[in-house]
Design a protein that fits this description.
262 residues, Endonuclease I-creI, 4-stranded antiparallel beta sheet, 9 helices, 6 strands, globular
Length: 262
């Protein structure tokens, strides 16, 4: 961490007065005084997810009554929101979201003249206990569906968006509130595929090949089945995304979303 980012932090040395001078030990006691509203607001946002969080005074140098009032106001305003902050969703997606292109054989569907069905899917899957959070995400975007899944007795909920019309709403969100992790590269490729599908190009052999080339550079790449079916496909160059350390955090709410389950 650079010195300019450290804020008002210092160390105090305390000497044990009960021992002889030759045996006196020195204890280093760290002090942190982060009095800026930006830092306090971020602290409040993160507190908002812990119902029983006990408020601690970071330093005696900060007016206690003012701090309690600020934390209570910030915390209550977060709880009262019917919709989550857009930056929270972006940070949460950087940590938990998934952009997927599905390409599978569909020989019996006459509409699929190329014999392959293509789906673009954005989804977030969480435990059943986090259903309320997924409902709030769905409320923010206004599109998509919540689907229950049971694997070996483990209940989970998927928030999924897969129609091209609804995905356009998703693209609008992430174009405005941009991802900053390496997931942004998957998003950029995913966006190109959705735009091809919007133009119905996935129904042509040439358009299908473009989408497969995009899929080859996303996530885990192509399955063995797709590699065999499209042996001449050359993966599209994966977009470059700055390392996380070089990408400035856009908003405290992004941090709150990204750290939600870490």
């Amino acid at each position: 961490m650079e010195e300019t980012e450290m804020g008002n932090r210092g160390s105090k040395s305390i000497t044990d007065l009960h021992k002889p001078a030759s045996h006196k030990s020195v204890i280093v006691k760290e002090q942190r005084v982060d009095g800026s509203w930006h830092n306090m607001c971020l602290r409040c946002i993160l507190m908002g997810f812990e119902r029983n969080y006990q408020v601690k005074i970071p330093s005696k140098q900060i007016n206690k009554s003012r701090l309690y009032t600020s934390i209570a106001t910030c915390h209550q305003s977060f709880i009262d929101q019917s919709e989550i902050n857009p930056w929270f969703l972006t940070g949460f997606t950087d940590a938990e979201g998934c952009f997927t292109l599905s390409v599978g054989l569909c020989p019996r569907n006459k509409k699929m003249k190329v014999g392959w069905a293509v789906q673009a899917i954005f989804q977030i899957e969480l435990s059943q206990i986090d259903l309320d959070l997924l409902k709030r995400i769905k409320s923010l975007l206004g599109v998509g569906n919540l689907l229950e899944r049971n694997i070996n007795g483990q209940q989970s909920i998927k928030y999924r968006i897969q129609s091209v019309k609804d995905l356009k709403v998703t693209l609008d969100h992430f174009d405005k509130y941009r991802l900053i992790s390496q997931k942004r590269a998957d998003y950029e490729l995913f966006k190109q595929a959705v735009e091809l599908m919007e133009q119905k190009e996935h129904l042509t052999e040439e358009g299908l090949a473009k989408i497969v080339a995009l899929k080859a550079s996303m996530n885990m790449g192509l399955s063995e089945e797709l590699k065999a079916a499209f042996p001449k496909i050359i993966p599209i160059a994966r977009p470059l995304v700055p390392n996380r350390g070089r990408s400035p955090v856009p908003d405290p709410q992004w941090v709150a979303g990204f750290l939600r389950f870490l």
